[in-house]
Automatic annotation (TrEMBL):
The keyword NAD applies. This is UDP-glucose 6-dehydrogenase. Keywords: NAD, Oxidoreductase. It catalyses: UDP-alpha-D-glucose + 2 NAD(+) + H2O = UDP-alpha-D-glucuronate + 2 NADH + 3 H(+). Belongs to the UDP-glucose/GDP-mannose dehydrogenase family. Residues 317-419 form the UDP-glucose/GDP-mannose dehydrogenase C-terminal domain. The keyword Endoplasmic reticulum does not apply. Its EC number is 1.1.1.22. It is an enzyme of class 1 (oxidoreductase). It holds the Pfam family UDPG_MGDP_dh_C.
Length: 436
């Protein structure tokens, strides 16, 4: 099938590439000529394990192309995906749909023959209807069906998630569109991925509801971690204990410094706004966003308390800056709050991240020093904080670390070490929710 993918951000690039890997002919479109030129050279603008190989392989086979010309790609396509950004709108937290609407207008003018227009961007309920309206206005005779097909991939595991999803959700009541979408995803159904067909508005809600639910799960365990710190009990074990109940499930119950990234903070806010305006506020989700924001804001203070409030001019080593491992994405990373509050209290910050330092330099204050590796980072520091659970931090040479640190204090915000590994070596160890 011929596919046009509008937008080469995370979702667009990964989905377009994976569709081409299944044998579909895909043209990825972006207005950013520089980005397209670099993609044509095989240069991938994001860090995502395995993506560069997949792009090069499919581009070489001629199934994956990159272009700035939307018109031609849409004219030739049977399926056109809208995968442009939907950032939070300044001021009110609603998803900013200006890129989505602009893409819809351009698609309307270019489409020829029956064309299925699919929203892959995360968009509020009702957006599919708006897009349909825009297209009818722009091109009254166009033969177009507008479908919602949200994407559930995670950064850092994007290819695996795309190719082996738990489910594929397709929102449409148009039988021709349904057939086209079934054909498009047929290669995936071989991996036993269930395709769920539903109404368009339902599909739009499923995406936000999934992210909001996961954010809620994380926030729940984070609050229980706080409780463990006051009354005793190990939150890791509590999570395991409740997660073995299949009605609860073990995933997304890992306590930490609060969730970040480009999706949970933005999507919970957007869903909250939609619900408030509909007069049916989602009070649980409102609380989740407030609790998570204050958790991230308070995390720097907690780190300092754990280290024992070092004097002004002391140095804290920060390991891990990205919002999670296997990505270079710094968006809404808890590290941003932590670093800022350390600097605000006159503490120097020396940081290391295996992949995210170039991005970090763009968003963190210039006062931050960057190290070459975890040991370089720890040298002479008055304490070390693990903010992101990169694999590279899971088996550090603890004896070496102890000789390098001025004060042997480790604050492990992701609970990646058994406390005894450190305490038996004479470290002071502070995890998250690991007893009073
Ligand atoms: C999230 C969803 O997991 C995807 O299903 C969804 O497609 C995506 O948003 C999106 O809407 O595009 P992502 O933001 O890439 O994916 O990352 P996650 O793995 O979900 O992690 C988000 C945040 O939650 C991270 O800061 C992570 O450290 C935190 N987290 C996650 C925890 O603190 N504890 C956990 O148990 C799990």
């Amino acid at each position: 099938m011929r596919v046009a993918m509008i937008g080469t951000g995370y979702v667009g690039l990964v989905s377009g590439t994976c569709f081409s890997d299944f044998g579909h002919e895909v043209v990825c479109i972006d207005k950013d000529a520089d980005k397209i030129a670099r993609l044509k050279q095989g240069e991938i603008p994001i860090f995502e394990p395995g993506l560069d190989d997949l792009v090069r392989r499919n581009a070489a086979a001629g199934r994956l192309q990159f272009d700035t010309d939307l018109t031609q790609a849409v004219r030739e396509a049977e399926v056109v995906f809208i995968a442009v950004g939907t950032p939070s709108r300044r001021g009110d937290g609603h998803a900013d749909l200006s890129y989505v609407h602009a893409a819809a207008r351009e698609i309307a003018r270019a489409a020829q023959g029956f064309t299925v227009v699919v929203t892959k961007s995360t968009v509020p309920v009702g957006t599919g209807a708006d897009i349909e309206h825009i297209i009818r206005e722009e091109a009254p005779d166009a033969d177009i069906a507008v479908v919602s097909n949200p994407e559930f991939l995670r950064e850092g595991a994007a290819i695996e998630d795309f190719k082996r999803p738990d489910r594929i959700v397709v929102g449409t009541s148009d039988p021709r569109a349904r057939e086209v979408m079934a054909a498009l995803y047929r290669p995936l159904s071989l991996n036993a991925a269930p395709v769920m067909f539903t109404e368009r508005a339902t599909a739009e809600l499923i995406k936000y509801a999934s992210n909001a639910f996961l954010a809620m799960k994380i926030t729940f365990i984070n609050e229980l971690a706080d409780l463990c710190e006051k009354v005793g009990g190990d939150v890791q074990e509590v999570a395991r204990g409740i997660g073995l109940d299949r009605r609860i499930g073990p995933k997304f119950l890992h306590a930490g410094p609060g969730y970040g990234g480009s999706c949970f903070p933005k999507d919970t806010l957007a869903l909250m706004r939609t619900a408030q305006e509909a007069g049916t506020p989602l009070r649980l989700i409102e609380t989740v966003t407030t609790v998570n924001d204050s958790r991230k804001a308070a995390m720097g203070r907690r780190v300092l308390d754990a280290i024992g409030t070092p004097p002004r001019g002391a140095t804290v080593a920060v390991l891990g800056l990205t919002f999670k491992p296997n990505t270079d994405d710094m968006r809404d990373s808890p590290a941003i709050n932590i670093v800022q509050s350390l600097l605000d209290r006159g503490v120097r910050v020396r940081a290391f991240d295996p992949v995210g330092m170039a991005e970090a330099r763009k968003v963190l204050p210039p006062a931050v020093d960057y190290a070459n590796d975890p040991y370089d980072c720890a040298e002479g520091a008055d304490g070390l904080v693990i903010v992101t659970e990169w694999d590279a931090f899971r088996a550090l040479d603890l004896d070496r670390l102890k000789t390098l640190l001025r004060q042997p204090v480790v604050v492990d915000l992701r609970n990646i070490y058994p406390p005894a590994d450190l305490t038996s070596r004479g470290f002071r160890y502070v995890g998250i929710g690991r007893g009073a």
